[in-house]
Each structure stands twice: as structure tokens, then as C-alpha cells.
């Protein structure tokens, strides 16, 4: 019932406005023409429920039409309008198509990611892996089709915390560059937690303890995580016919393993 | 009190124009034009006040702005066309004045084109094919 109230209100307002504006008009000669346009506006307002039923919002339709008319320029705008507007329409169309393609690529990427996750769970038994797939447009592999087709440009798998039984919370690494990391980061966290409750001496002690525990479990966890990542990469390569280097596996507690 | 000012300006300029007309008809025309523009500018503020009030009312009641915009365009076109036509008519060029009025009418009708097209499209859809 609210739309009826809004509709009635709009009609009343437009009629009032029209009556008022007729008073404002300067001369008799213009009055007939202005009255025609005003009465058309009233008619459109009365018809607006039907228009919105058949075509969509009447007011927005009207504003689009008005904007188009304004864009066509004034009296002296020349004849080259046609060319320009055709170019513009083509550009608009391309932009729309691009937007739609991006949307469909995103949908497809989500779908592929879901399937890959299911496969990883069923084949390797790793649960809760997060798969992110990026699709891009590229040439088809068989190259018989001239058009660009969607290809998987990158897959990144991030595994849940390592199943290798690492005892510490540190991150063992395969590369030499980040060996300082497990030593640096955990103590900072410990400091932040324990500063509030415990004195300084105790805090350093716990930090060192965590470090040594981490050092014990690091090697084992490292090899386990690497094996797991390898198996996932092989699986995805076989199933999805992907090039090496596309897949990237990250463990939550192990470093990046790239092919 | 403003109406007294307007009428005063009008009377004064009329007398001056009547005097000037004997000596220099061209200056008489210029004076008439200037007086017209002065009165028009004087009223501009008042018209703006009315229009802004209308706009505020329409905004607060949730009326579609495009309707209001169309109505304002009609008012603007008719005022400007009328004013220009009057000046030209004062100068004795009746032909050009009527052309200006014609242009005003046509431009007002152009405003009606999108509305008419929407209404006609709707009616055509209502009819059975």
C-alpha cells in the first residue's frame, strides 16, 4: 500500500508544481507549449506504475533520455555527431563486455578453486586447504582457435598448520634467507603477552625455551611440509594440466614452496 | 516596497527615452535595453528564491528530480526567449523577435520529446501485438 501513497503524493506534487509554473511563465505565446510539456509530465507521473511494470523506472528512463539529448549538443553542433556517437556506443559495449567477462572469470575461478580443494582433500587427506585460483585470458594450447580463452594463470594453495608434528610455534624454513625469522618473531610475541603479567627475567626464559623447542622440531616439520606440498603440486598438475610454476603452495607454519 | 522601485525605474527611463528619442534614437534604444536588463536582474533573485523553495519541497517529499529539472528548463527557456524577443521588438525588428520566440517554442517542444517517447512506448507495449 505504500507505493500507492507515494504515487498519489507524486501526482499531487507534480500537478501543484505545474499550476505554479504556469503562473510563472512570462507570456501568452509560450504558455501553450509549456502547458503541453507540463501536462505530459503529469501524464507520465500518472502512468509511472505501468511504465515501471513494463520498462523499469520511469524517472530514470527519462533522465537517461534527457542526458542523451543534452549530449547531442546545442543548435550549432554539426553533422559529425553520428560518427562520434557510434564510436562511443562501441566503446561502451566493449567496456560492458569486459566487465561481464571479468565477472564470469571470477565465478569460474571460484568454482575451480572449490574443485581443487575437494581433490586435495580426497587425494592427500589434507583438510582445510585454502585454494585461490587466478584466471586470465590467453591463447589456447592447441592454437586452432583464434580467440583468447580463459587459462589458469596462477594457483596458490595455503595449507593449514603443518601436520608434521612440529612442537614449537616457530617457522622452519627451506631457504637460507629467513633463518633469523623463527628466532626473532616468537620472542616478540612472547614479550607482548608476558609483559603485562610477569617480570622481565622470567619472560626471557620462556622465550629461549620456545626457541629451543622450535629448533628440535624444525627439520622434521620441514621435510613433511615439503613432501605434502610436492604431492599437492603433482596432483594439481596432473589433474588440471597445468604448467609448473603456476602452482604455489604455502604452509601456514612452513615457508613458501615454489616450483 | 520593491514594486515601487521597479515602477519608479520604469517611469523614469520612459520619460528619458521619450526625450532622447527626439535627439538620438539609438541611445533611446540602448537605455530601454539597459532598463529591461536591470528589471530582469532585479527579479532574478526573487525567481531564484521561488525555484529553490520548490526544489526544497520536492526534495523533502521525495519527488523525482528529473521532473523538477524539466519544469525549470521550461521556465528558463521561456523567460530568456521572451526577454530577448522583447528587446529586439523594442528596436523595431519584429521579424527577428518572432524568430526568437519560435526558437523558444521549439526548444520547449524538444524537452517534450523524451517524455512523449516514453509514454508512446508504454502505450504500444500495453496494446496487444
UniProtKB/TrEMBL annotation, chain A:
The chain crosses the membrane at residues 6-25, 37-54. Residues 198-225 are annotated as: Disordered. It comes from the Bacteria. The keyword Transmembrane applies. Keywords: Membrane, Transmembrane, Transmembrane helix. The keyword Transmembrane applies. It holds the Pfam family Spore_III_AF. InterPro entries: Spore_III_AF (IPR014245). Residues 204-224 have a biased composition (Low complexity). This is Stage III sporulation protein AF. It comes from Paenibacillus monticola. The gene is spoIIIAF.
TrEMBL record, chain B:
It comes from Paenibacillus monticola. It holds the Pfam family SpoIIIAC. Keywords: Membrane, Transmembrane, Transmembrane helix. This is Stage III sporulation protein AD. The keyword Transmembrane applies. The chain crosses the membrane at residues 26-45, 65-85, 106-127. InterPro entries: Spore_III_AC/AD, Spore_III_AD.
